[in-house]
Amino acid sequence: MKLRAKGLGLLLLVLLALCSTIDVCDARRGKHWRPRSSPISSMLRKKGKGKKGSSNKQPRGNRPSGPKLPVSPPPSPGAGKGYQSPYQPSPSPSPNVPVSPSPANGTGHPSPKPPTPSCGKGNQPPPRPTTPAAPQGAVFNVVDFGAKGDGVSDDTKAFEEAWAAACKLGSSTVLVPPELEFLVGPISFSGPYCKPNILFQLEGTMLAPTSAKAWGSGLLQWIEFTKLNGIAIQGNGMINGRGQQWWTYSDTDDNDDDDTQYDVEFDRMPQVKPTALRFYGSFNVVVAGITIVNSSQCHLKFDNCQGVMVHDLTISSPENSLNTDGIHLQNSKDVSIHHTNLACGDDCVSIQTGCSNINIHNVNCGPGHGISIGGLGRDNTKACVSNVTVRDVNMFRTMTGVRIKTWQGGLGLVQDVRFSNIQVSEVQTPIIIDQFYCDKRTCSNQTSAVAVSGVQYENIRGTFTIKPAHFACSDNSPCSGITLTGVQLRPVQIPRYHLNDPFCWQAFGELYTPTIPPIACLHLGKPAGNILQSYHDIC
Fold first, then answer.
1. 379 has catalytic annotation
2. What letters, b where the CB count within 10 A reaches 16 and e where it falls short, cover 272-292?
3. DSSP string, 484-501
4. 466-488 residue pLDDT tens
5. Is there a catalytic annotation at residue 346?
6. Residues 244-277: tens digit of each pLDDT
7. Who contacts 496 (Cβ-Cβ below 8 Å, separation ≥6)?
8. Catalytic residue selected from 369, 434, 470, 523
9. How far apart are CA 149 and CA 180, in angstroms?
């Protein structure tokens, strides 16, 4: 018995010795047991704690007043809690410390993480030194930068500052919140030093100025995005060009010498009319969901862009608003336009020189002038357009349907064009190739022309009011490779129009199926000679 008692005593002593190395506080906190850290680790941890605790407030320093680029905190694991809708204005920042965007929505400080209570020495390893990283997906609401959104105050500066903040971060969003109207003057959201992949989320309305003073002697665009990579403008908002001032008072044929008196009386707008929304020199561009109305001239323009996607867009201006093209493409490649409604006073879509790989489908067009390639070769210039597909399009009461138009005296080539499944209703002339295009009273006759080759017309059906088809091609550069399949166009008698038969001049190709009405004037086969070779070399 004595031996057993001694053995039990020794066992208890051993157990007590082992338990002395356990951090009892950690056990009370429910943490996993960890071995004690070395004294060196404990000292490093104390230093790290001091630095961490001192960073809870932003340093005031000599910070200038006014809204500036928010200081970006490192992402917080709890940033998703207490999410504030990005469509509501954020709380006003303090006068000295700007509000920093959280990773969730870009407004407000993330909740500071409380320091971990310590009990015992060396219960955690030393913190690793970290470099503060900019939050991904930060949202910069223009209201937070001073925009009023009352439709009267000039909010241009707030838009510029919100853009500057997003530009420096990249992978971020500029938010134009809903149910507000923002008066914005001529503005350029430009690179090339912006970070890529910026989203311009348009939910409210942007209004163009109606004062002639805002435009000076005239500007080519109102809202411009330039030299960007990965730029998208999307949402349910509206861009309102308020172009009625130009349509009413700007007349290029007016020779009235008393312009000063006219300006005073009618606040006459300048002769140069701005495009509402222009993208220049950009890659991977998306425009989706928004509405553009009443531009003074072209509504949406892409110039020198590559990789463009436009969908679920609405463009609208009156039929009598002069030169208000819907979408204008120039020197742009790899463009897709689909599921879009276009109504304007000029071409629904205009495809100019330097364009290739253009795909347009599921588009409603009208009123307007149809979908056009050209005019090309103006003032004896070179023009090249290739690989264009227009399919599954509805046109209602437009001036033309699908059209190719070139000026006399130009050079170059339009090739590999396909118009397919085009439904026309009361369209004046559904099919046009015109190598004698002239928008003046008279144009001089010239021998050279932009050549047209390889144009397919498939399933062009519906009604016309003037002429079913018009092929007016150059004597020196006849149109070649025109093919017609499933063309069925029936006349609708309109009192003010006179119906005409199909017209052809120097047009060559094939009739794969009978047409309604018969287009017997098309020359079957190819034109004599191989004129196109030199144009291929030029393009």
1. no
2. ebbbbbbbbbbebbbbebbbb
3. EES-EEEE---TT-----
4. 999 999 999 999 999 999 999 99
5. yes
6. 988 875 444 443 333 333 343 345 788 899 999 9
7. none
8. 369
9. 5
